[in-house]
């Protein structure tokens, strides 16, 4: 360390100049080897490489002579301890500026020791005010371990820290981190205690408008709502046991400003999924049958609880009971309800006018007889090939329509024979015959209908033609024409028809 003595300044080749313009001699090669920032200054294209002085100026901190001397001591031989007179905030800023991670760790230890008092209990007034400030420095200058310790310590003792001005002056994003950390450590065992701490914070902050307290009030109100919602959601687990009764319902443990908002939140959040659990937990505290020894010792709610707590809890129980009665049709089928005493179950059914028919809560879908009938081959073809389906009138012969539709024959008189579907009429040269869905027409020769087998037409113009069955039937897909004979329908009137060319039929 003789290199730092003033007598050895003749061996130095550079000087560090802090804010007060005091020259502190140093050596280029040591600064270059121990610090990357100094190496860039002295070995690069910076102006410090051509001058004999390095100006030490801080950005948002003061680069005092003591801070610069501490930096030089660390670079030359390391520093396990710091002077009590050095400003830790300024030193931390300088160490971060010049990338001296080792010096930052040394400074973090002194912050933990001197400002946080090693997070001791009970908290003192000094560390209660300095821990939020230390948390801000740790966040700003990249000390994650110290930052997390400060954050968790403030979350566990929020009633002591959140009322401090140093906490209220933190940036909004740090307030949000504090609130999130409270929610991370929240569980069924400490939820009510956290509500008590938040209520204490609200009482500790100024009641009227105060500029410094408004940020703390805002984050306290936000956290209160979140913790209250958590406690209401897990209320059946929180009150299941004697700790809740002994700690918050007896004597001075009762806190109206905390418990009544919690009761209202639980009632507002009742649903078919949690009503049975909440009712069982509340009933065990308020209405369960006490043993004879408990009665002799005066361990009944009416005698042992705080009078205000007994009254408020009674109203809370009635509201949950009314909800269970109103939704008895569902709740009586839950497993939790079946675990209640028989007399209590009967009382709930009686108050709900509930009639249990013994049937299952949900019935199976009825099976219709029509769905059990075997489907015919025609229906199966229709379902699988809807484009090939035919009408019911053509069910007698599906193949004949396929064979008659494309067929046609022409004979010597110029007549035309074709199978065509019409609207159930059969017209001849001298008469007409109307069948169920088809017609056959002929002039000189036999023509077969689409569906009825055969319809013969013979004779000179106007002679009657007889169908094979006396009736020409079709499905709307075929029509048969002869050359010179008409077809006579059963029971129908015969009338001459005019050919398509507009001329009279032969023989007239």
From TrEMBL:
Protein name, entry field: BTB domain-containing protein
Compositional bias annotation for Basic and acidic residues: 498-508
Biased composition, class Low complexity, residue ranges: 388-410, 419-433, 441-458
Domain of life: Eukaryota
Domain BTB: start-end pairs: 12-84
Organism: Strongylocentrotus purpuratus
Region span, Disordered: 364-508
UniProt biased composition (Gly residues): 459-479
Residue spans of biased composition, Polar residues class: 368-381
InterPro entries cross-referenced by the UniProt entry: BACK_BTBD8, BTB/POZ_dom, SKP1/BTB/POZ_sf
Pfam families per the UniProt record, alphabetical: BACK_BTBD8, BTB
């Amino acid at each position: 360390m003789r290199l730092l003595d003033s007598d050895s300044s003749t061996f130095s080749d550079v000087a560090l100049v802090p804010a007060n313009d005091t020259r502190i001699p140093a050596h280029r090669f040591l600064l270059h080897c121990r610090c990357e920032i100094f190496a860039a200054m002295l070995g690069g294209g910076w102006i410090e490489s051509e001058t004999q002085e390095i100006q030490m100026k801080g950005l948002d901190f003061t680069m005092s002579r003591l801070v610069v001397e501490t930096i030089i001591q660390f670079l030359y031989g390391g520093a396990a301890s710091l002077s009590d007179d050095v400003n830790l905030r300024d030193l931390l800023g300088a160490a971060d500026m010049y990338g001296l991670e080792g010096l930052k760790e040394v400074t973090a230890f002194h912050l933990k020791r001197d400002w946080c008092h090693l997070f001791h209990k009970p908290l003192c007034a000094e560390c209660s005010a300095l821990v939020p400030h230390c948390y801000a420095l740790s966040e700003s200058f990249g000390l994650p371990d110290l930052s997390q310790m400060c954050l968790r310590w403030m979350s566990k003792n929020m009633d002591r820290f959140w009322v401090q001005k140093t906490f209220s002056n933190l940036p909004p994003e740090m307030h949000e981190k504090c609130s999130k950390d409270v929610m991370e450590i929240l569980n069924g065992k400490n939820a009510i205690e956290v509500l008590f701490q938040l209520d204490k914070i609200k009482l500790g902050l100024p009641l009227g408008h105060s500029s410094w307290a408004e940020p703390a009030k805002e984050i306290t109100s936000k956290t209160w709502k979140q913790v209250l919602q958590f406690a209401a959601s897990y209320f059946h687990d929180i009150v299941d046991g004697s700790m809740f009764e002994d700690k918050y319902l007896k004597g001075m443990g009762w806190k109206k400003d905390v418990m009544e908002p919690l009761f209202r939140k639980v009632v507002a959040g009742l649903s078919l999924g949690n009503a049975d659990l909440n009712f069982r937990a509340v009933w065990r505290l308020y209405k369960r049958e006490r043993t004879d020894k408990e009665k002799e010792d005066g361990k009944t709610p009416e005698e042992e609880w705080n009078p205000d707590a007994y009254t408020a809890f009674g109203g809370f129980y009635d509201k949950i009971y009314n909800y269970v009665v109103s939704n008895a049709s569902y709740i009586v089928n839950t497993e939790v309800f079946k675990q209640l005493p028989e007399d209590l179950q009967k009382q709930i059914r009686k108050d709900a006018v509930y009639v249990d028919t013994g049937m299952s809560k949900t019935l199976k879908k009825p099976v219709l007889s029509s769905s059990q009938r075997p489907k015919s081959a025609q229906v199966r073809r229709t379902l699988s090939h809807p484009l090939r389906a035919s009408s019911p009138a053509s069910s007698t012969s599906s193949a004949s329509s396929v064979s008659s539709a494309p067929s046609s024959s022409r004979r010597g008189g110029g007549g035309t024979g074709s199978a065509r579907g019409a609207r159930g009429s059969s017209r001849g040269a001298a008469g007409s015959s109307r069948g169920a869905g088809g017609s056959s027409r002929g002039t000189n020769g036999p023509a077969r209908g689409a569906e009825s087998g055969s319809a013969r037409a013979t004779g000179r113009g106007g002679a009657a033609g007889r169908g094979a069955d006396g009736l020409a039937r079709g499905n709307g897909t075929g029509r048969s024409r002869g050359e010179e004979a008409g077809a006579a329908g059963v029971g129908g009137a015969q009338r001459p028809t005019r050919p398509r060319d507009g001329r009279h039929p032969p023989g007239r």
